[in-house]
């Protein structure tokens, strides 16, 4: 066994970084045995050097991340800063100086994954980012390696713990969105500025990464249709319950039926209570993968948090170190299919639509005509009347999102339709 | 990209083998792109050459498997024969002639994994066997690679589809074991000779493989405590229901609390309906992995069948081919912890015991005394009397299996205990 240690530079020492440093110290013997050589924390770049970091030797701490990655003796850079810059420049600089990179940075990989992979390949380095998607749940490696001989047709999952916590609370307690968000914030499940989570940006970045790997093509954050959960109401959740469903924020990546394009989207959707994703509670994540030969696989676990994310980072660190020792690299980007990403309008889905309508004869016929004119077939209609007003709840059969959107627009123009109270897609059947 | 194809020899062309051959043909372009070179089926060894195999060119078929693996130009041997011999000799010969091996052979890996890994390492070859455990569900690779930086404490799962189908039928229809087995046989879920499945040998082999990888030690089939499902009665299932539980055949691999030993066992057990494994229906498999940093992960999917198993084989084939091209090998055996495997008596578990007792005063006190004398604490007792006889159902707190077994032996010796009607462990809490 080699005795000269592999040197690791850690960029960022927050919740994840400090846990990575801690495990590298407490489990040094295990890591040595599994890698085939000792691994040493050679430097830790932070923004605020004075914050006490338990277990991280003070002499390793620096505020000059650039100098750290330029040292030239670093074998693997672990980037847990997050955000686009300075992470992107630091990672690129690390490759230029001969290091492999393990990153937990979903935003950066979703935006610039192709360029980063190219930079890694040019320098014969590895770029790993299991921690960028669903914390400790192995997804990137199973999709890239275990299913490398299969054809993935669909990835459907709950990949954001904050929004799942909020929707779960709304479902179990009947609370409204704001109330549930407040609870999530108080319990530490939501950040002070929850935008990235509740507006679906975080889930959309993960969807882009998963779609690219699953379909062997390039999908970036901009390709992902994104709707958050801020408009989900207690009434929507109640409607879902009446249908035997619950509401989840889903990331859905699909290959078109003809195999010639893919779609990627993040939006709240109703799913039947019988679907395994319906029982994913609190801040847990779960992802279904449907492949031609493998069938339906599900991966479930904690999607965030310092320890789970550190577990994923360390798995990648072991792989990157092993490859360094063997003088090789793991599988890089696979984007040979060059499948285009279709717009949301091409997605085939179902709508659950609640309408406030005038309570008079002929309204249902009028509404049904609008659906028929757009080629949208109706699955069920439920009508409730009270005091001259009535509500119609329509669930459609599968149709293109464009046709469904056009139907809703046409419904809004009907005199007898006073309001389109809510629209939600129905998935998971 | 290299244009000389990598050559693959297929040993066995039954349900799995013919599906591997089919996908290699229909998805040749994808495999070429993912591997970085074309991959070619160079020979198919079978026992019965005259059986028609759709999609397998007749000129590739041979009955001389030994000559095929000795050809010297084979890059990867795919072994889907099963059983110990001739599979073991063929695999060893394949390594000697420079090939890497992908195997779906759980019995062989569970018995001789260490020797096979050593043979592979000696020749600089790969030995992969994702398909040996839980079909298409990625488990070997996530445990070996994704969790390489973590400490796994427990693996708990349903890893045999046949027995899960039978127990599921008994649970939903109230059928007895024989009736449910007949249905499984008629539907193709059980083989004509179901011994390997219903006696737990298949699950025990998988438990040995999972325990070895999870705990970085050597665990063979003989180390696994094994009980099948043939003695599970409709009454046991009914008892489980009364407790809010269901009965599953579980494979459980655990690291002892002090970290100094491990255990591996397969037996039927009651698990609460609230546990995610309780809702694993029909022939599906699901495995929980509990790791220090990652927390609780679950992997779910079809655990058997030609296509799912072929998916796992092909994922390994892609990895083995990539390594061949790069002149490297993937991670081999990791058994550095050398943790001993403790006997079943050391396992900490809970018992659900049904006793037929004399319906007279003092019996409960007598029974309770026996538990106390063995240091086994009682959680609940349910007593039902009829016609001078009574039944006592006792659920214990956690205790060593040795103490629980000794308690049951002592109960049998009590005059007032007419019969120990059933004993089942309670897990998953």
Structure description:
- The structure is a homodimer of 429-residue chains.
- Chain A is of the alpha/beta class and 429 residues long.
- Helices cover 36% and strands 26% of the residues of chain A.
- The first copy, chain A, has 14 helices and 17 strands.
- In chain A, helix 7 (161-173) packs across helix 8 and helix 13 (363-373) runs antiparallel to helix 14 (401-413).
- Chains A and B meet through helix 2, helix 6, strand 12 and helix 12 of A and helix 2, helix 6, strand 12 and helix 12 of B.
- Strand 12 of chain A pairs antiparallel with strand 12 (295-302) of chain B.
CATH topology of the largest domain in chain A: Dihydrodipicolinate Reductase, domain 2
Low-confidence spans of chain A: pLDDT under 50, at least 5 residues?
none
Please indicate the count of domains of chain A.
Answer: 3
- Approximately how much helix is present in the residues of chain A? 25-40%
What is the β-strand count of chain A? 17
First-last Cα distance of chain A: 53 Å
What is the assigned CATH homologous superfamily of the largest domain in chain A?
Dihydrodipicolinate Reductase, domain 2
Largest sheet, strands/sense/barrel of chain A: 11 strands, mixed
Total number of helical segments of chain A? 14
Percent in strands of chain A: 25-35%
Corresponding CATH architecture of the largest domain in chain A = 2-Layer Sandwich
If you average the pLDDT of chain A, what whole number results? 95
CATH class of the largest domain in chain A: Alpha Beta
